[in-house]
Amino acid sequence: MPIPKRFRRSFPLSLATLALGGLSACMNTDKADPTEAFTVTVKSKASAFTSSASGTYGSSAAKPGSSFTFEFYAGKGSRLSFASMFGQSNDWFFAPDTSGIPLYDAAGAPVSGDVTDQVYVWDAGTEEDQPPLQGSNQAPRQAAPNTGPADADAHIRRVAEFPVGAFGSAPAKPGDSLVFEFAAPKGSRISFASMFGQSNDWFFAPDTMGIELYDASGSPRSGDVTSSIKLWDLGTEMDEPIGMGPNQAPRQAAPNTGDADADDKVRLVTDSAYADVSKILSARLASLGDGKFRVTLSVLPESPTPISPVVYQVHMGHHALFTPGAKDAGKGLERLAEDGNPKEAAKNLAGYDFGRAGNNVHVTLMPEGGGKFQARIDVLDGSVTPVGPGAYSIHAGSSPIFAAGAAAPAGLEPLAEDGNPTARAASLAMATGVSTPLSPVVWAIANKKDLLFAQGTADYGKGLESLAEEGNPKALMDYLASMGIQSGVAGTAAFAGGASVSFDIMPRDGDMLFLATMFGQSNDLFFAPGGDGIALWNGSYRRSGDVTGDVSLWDAGTEMNEAPGAGPNQAPRESAPGMGGPGEGKVQAIADVKDGFAYPKVGDLIEVDLQSK
Fold first, then answer.
1. 3-state secondary structure of 27
2. Cα–Cα distance measured from residue 137 to residue 58, given in angstroms and rounded to the nearest whole number
3. For residue 16, pLDDT beyond 80
4. Is 598 a residue whose pLDDT tops 60?
């Protein structure tokens, strides 16, 4: 973790001189036996953490109209990533891209509001795709988890967009044309609907499987597709004679004025005077290259009717416009078939543009102060899919949840296929923690219990507070020097990322090693041995090697704890020293504080090595 400038400045520039002075004084104590010398090395461990916080949200799928919320702490420079299953799919999931969503802006202010534009739909590449909402191996319909065949493309990639829209601002009269363009991924189809203007509720559309846009070899199609267009009766309004009815769009006093149809099912028009679509209009499909297409609907000069603006849908499997033999689904096609208005249908079918996450979910960030955020994932009322419980990560680098173009990491498959985030969250948890710089190390050699502090009692007021809150060792070092004991400071500035400091000690019989260094991403935490210090002999033998097990993480009790790595009153972020609220009033091992925050293991952040000379 880079050491923030504010944190670096909190250490006095004269520490090198002060540390040398302390060492010089202790070397002048004539009772030290040079044959008993040791070298002590304190090393900051290179971070193995990819998340500063991680977890899960939700216990069951969120249906349209419901939401997930979760809370977390995050420091400046942090980003949010999450993943939730697109429930009506084989292995799709909602997630930001691999850089995550920034939680702070360039000025360092927390981001608030709608961040949906940074969320996408991804294919995990673990199971062969079936048409969304239709596949037998998709979670709502599968007999058991993981029943589908493997995906031939076993790499994570963005789900293509499947455009849905409306085109045209006025009817096309005989001799006129309507032309609309769209992009479509391989394997997809196009469907559209346009009103037979001189009717009560008739419309032109392909059948439920639409018009294929690519041939069997994957090449885009072009040519006349009129034979794929049929004339349908929506079954929402009683039919009147074509071109004469007072409740037909050109003559009605207001929309939706006709009586209900006694047969309320969608069906083909059987009137032989109009059933042959090729006598009314022609339809041509043209490939424009790069996955783009154009459809031209030309109304023949001898046509008995204008046609309305169109609603269109690019889709896999069957389209969502209507189902023959069933009642109108109430998604807006009635407005088109009766009144020639496609806008309501286009709006209500937007969720079928599967590659646009914002058509089905909205994501909102809500800062709560003190580095705390709440995130809410709303499944829209008109969403075509439930959304699975998810896993989240707060991180500074790339998202640890997945990498685009790579194979699915451990635990992503059950999340994306079955809506189960447990395994992915467990994998994230193994690399979750707060990396921290360490302050210069204050050290002393003495045969005295509780030299720097006494567990369960208030800080002595001799400089530990300055070290634990600001990383400033001067006051504590001065106190130790005034006692005439062997002591000093190792290091002149904060160190991190595998850097280390070393110092030599010359203990006498019965002496113990005491040291303290700040947990930099905290309000008042520090690493140190307990009241007995670190023993330098094991019986008659000198100790040598890793003694990190003798070191614990302590709370000085002088300032109220905030989330590690996120608190605004912690040294890297506070505007001035001593800005936090009052602490617990006593020195305690952090495990005994019960402040509700998670802390890494000591051995994940610091290593103390003892070598006899």
1. helix
2. 23
3. no
4. yes
Helix 474-482 to helix 15-27 angle (10° resolution) is 20
Per the listing, tokens 């083909």 go with 268
Residue 5: pLDDT band (50, 70, 90) is very low
How far from each other are the two terminal CA atoms of the chain, in whole angstroms?
A: 33
What residues contact 352, with CB distance under 8 A and at least 6 apart? Answer: 162, 164, 313, 315, 320, 359, 384
Residues of the chain with CATH 2.60.40.2130: 5-48+435-612
Query: Regarding beta strands 119-123 and 372-379, do their DSSP bridges make them parallel or antiparallel, or are they unpaired?
Result: unpaired
Task: Say how many C-beta atoms besides its own lie within 10 A of residue 111's C-beta.
Answer: 16
Helix/strand/coil (H, E, C) string of 513-578?
EEEEEEECCCCCEEEEECCCCEECEECCEECCEECHHHEEEEECCCCCCCCCCCCCCCCCCCCCCC
pTM for the whole thing? 0.83
- Continuous segment of H or E residues that includes residue 588: strand 588-589
pLDDT per residue over 511-530, tens digit each? 999 999 999 999 999 999 99
* Domain 5-48+435-612, CATH number (from 2.60.40.2130, 1.20.1110.10, 3.30.450.40, 3.40.630.10): 2.60.40.2130
Instruction: Find where tokens 């040598």 sit.
Output: 544
Tokens 């113990």 sit on residue: 512
For residue 106 the two structure tokens come to 């360039």
pLDDT for position 257: 87
Side-chain half-sphere CA neighbours of 232 within 13 A: 33
